[in-house]
Amino acid sequence: MRRWLITLGPGLGVWTGTASAQVARAVQWLVALGLCLGVWTGTVSAQVAGAVGVAGRGSSLEVGGEVDARIRLPEGAQFGVSVRGARTSRTYLGGYAEGDGGSFDASLHGVVPLFATDALEVGLRLGLGARSLWLDAAQGPYETAARLTSDFGPVAALHVDPHLTLRLGWTLVVEAELDPTVEISTLGARLVGGALVPIGEGVMLYGDVGVLGTFGFGGDNEKLQVDGTLGVRWAFGAGSRGWRFF
To answer: Among 28, 52, 96, 131, which lies 20 to 30 A Cα-Cα from 183?
Structure first.
């Protein structure tokens, strides 16, 4: 497959195509911070919990996969890093609708606790990342794109019983294209709901469904996007058995 990521870790950001150097540097920066988080977690493992996960993702525009890692402090705050790759069936570069291609995302994210009881946890999600897109065969004037991504908003988890947690969130999504044009590619609100079920010692199965209404490129973008995620997470460290809020 053309233009897929060919190295991981410190080599992230090297593509077999023409992905933007700015995004490559941003991805390397994000991964470096993620590695620092991992080292820091190892030094305070007696006080924090960690989790790693893998998931399949699909939407009205693309199908792919995601891996993520995160830590949770005793006070409930979370910090993590995720990477995602996908094949796109439709995308927008500089406002031009295009067909088959690919995408790669890397992001940092966190959750700041706002309210917590034994049954309910509410927090503020914050995310910042970088995205690269490319086409198999461009129909318009552009073949690749580089973007910055961000999202923030309230998220909540309702622990129905030890075997079921329901999740609900609303986030504002802002995506800015930096190359080949400089403009807002996505501005919208995403409503997401899902569930998490423990299936073993520290192992959790989770699924989400999201709906995103957007405006971008002066109206020349996908107005409504529907997505779904199904994955598995393994939690470890202090208090990991009770860690079901992501």
So the answer is: 28
